Amino acid sequence: MTAYGDEDHDQARHIESEDWDKALEEFCRDAHWAEGALVLTPFQDGESASLLDPVFAITVGEHTEVVSAEWSYLLGRLDGGDDWLALHQQLRAASWWAALDGPQALVRLTVRVTQPVPANVRLLLPAEGHRHILDVPARGGVIGLLPSRNAVWLEESTSVADTLTRMLLVPSAPSVSLRTLLDAHGWR
Questions:
Q1: Rounded to whole angstroms, how far apart are CA atoms 137 and 171?
Q2: What is the pLDDT of residues 148-181, one digit of tens each?
Q3: 167 Cβ partners below 8 Å, 6+ apart?
Q4: Quick one: CA dihedral 7, 8, 9, 10, positive or negative?
Q5: Nearest CA among 76, 96, 82 for reference residue 168
Q6: Residues 109-112: contacts with CB within 8 Å, 24+ apart?
Q7: Greater confidence, 159 or 53?
Q8: Residue 8 burial (10 A CB sphere; 0-12, 13-18, 19+)
Q9: Residue 23 near residue 15, CB atoms below 8 Å
Q10: What's the CA gap between 5 and 13, in Å, rounded?
């Protein structure tokens, strides 16, 4: 069993089989299951070339929205209006990935916001169920946190701007931990 990455280091470390349960418990501590993930590839009408890099979007359910008053405040401002722009002009955030490889490989996104309000959240996804899209966050770029109430709306949207204004957008550096997991399973 192998864990890849943590808050301080985005690198691989080996976990012996007898330590799996403890490693799994530690990996999932203070984390919440995301409802799912998808990749948004913005295209201009009628064009085949992407205008922007793909955005890896994680659907955040109501249970995660009430993790703290701060997260509720941040996600509550994602209505697609002018408040979204004001929020992102103030936003100071970082995110990083970790992966736990074993009987049920998992990936975890940690998001730390310092402005406009301090807030932290850890989101879990089953790696195998998302193996076909994990190469996007492995390369780094923008991660979108999409409240589930906005995910339904997303299917009706054709505008890149409207789509992005329904998410909290945070930067993410390239992830050695995700690349290592993908390579270990031949998923890229």
A1: 10
A2: 777 766 555 556 677 788 889 999 999 999 999 9
A3: 55, 57, 78, 144, 145, 146, 150
A4: positive
A5: 76
A6: 109/34, 109/58, 109/137, 109/143, 109/172, 110/7, 111/143, 111/145, 111/170
A7: 53
A8: exposed
A9: yes
A10: 8
Distance CA 172, CA 157 (A): 25
Q: What is d(CA 143, CA 176) in angstroms, rounded to the nearest whole number? A: 16
Q: So what's the pLDDT on residue 83?
A: 80
Residue with tokens 């996104």: 109
Quick one: pLDDT at residue 109? Answer: 95
How would you label 153-163 residue by residue, b for 16+ Cβ within 10 Å and e otherwise? ebeebeebeeb
Q: In this structure, what token pair is assigned to residue 38?
A: 């998808």
pTM: 0.85
